[in-house]
User: Which sequence fits this backbone?
């Protein structure tokens, strides 16, 4: 007994569907040869703080890791390296960046100018890469400003206290000087009166 033509078409359709599904899965797996995870996509920091841009990646081979920085001042490359090899750090970030084999970097002594977008790209081979972004906000340290104001106010208070003490001492000295002068004046007046009495 021969199978019906409609059954053949159905079987062929299912086969083609499965083949297409397998192709899509293979493409999906191929494009996901690199996976990247960023635990902290936004970082708030203060001036002079050391910041860790933490990432985790997984891939089959040894990838190339690249970090770039984008802000109002433009875009610039920070560092590029392969795990286990020496990092190629840009001149603008020399002595300010430390790299780790897991793809993370540490930026030392940040300033307000370091605020911006930090983009990490992990490339295993051409066509197989992943990228992620970390946003950094760096603000001035307000409590240090308040500390300076407090120190300045304490200094002004101390100066005012010294000046008030000096004024008090000067006032006491002036009072004693006037008292002695009055006493001498009184004595001289008394002597004059006695002399006048004697002459009379």
Assistant:
């Amino acid at each position: 007994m021969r199978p019906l033509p409609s059954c053949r078409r159905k079987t062929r359709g299912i086969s083609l569907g499965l083949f297409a599904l397998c192709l899509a899965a293979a493409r999906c797996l191929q494009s996901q040869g690199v996976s990247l995870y960023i635990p902290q996509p936004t970082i708030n920091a203060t001036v002079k703080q050391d910041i860790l841009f933490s990432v985790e990646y997984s891939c089959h081979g040894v990838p190339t890791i690249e970090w770039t920085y984008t802000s109002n001042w433009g875009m610039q490359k920070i560092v590029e390296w392969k795990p286990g090899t020496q990092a190629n750090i840009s001149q603008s970030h020399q002595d300010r960046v430390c790299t780790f084999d897991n793809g993370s970097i540490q930026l030392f002594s940040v300033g307000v100018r370091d605020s911006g977008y930090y983009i990490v790209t992990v490339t295993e081979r051409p066509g197989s890469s992943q990228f992620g972004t970390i946003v950094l906000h760096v603000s001035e340290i307000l409590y240090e400003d308040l500390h300076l104001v407090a120190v300045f106010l304490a200094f002004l208070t101390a100066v005012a206290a010294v000046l008030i003490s000096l004024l008090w001492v000067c006032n006491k000295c002036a009072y004693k000087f006037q008292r002695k002068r009055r006493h001498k004046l009184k004595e001289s007046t008394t002597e004059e009166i006695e002399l006048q009495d004697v002459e009379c």
The chain has two helices and eleven strands. Residues 141-200 form one domain. The first strand starts at residue 35 and ends at 37.
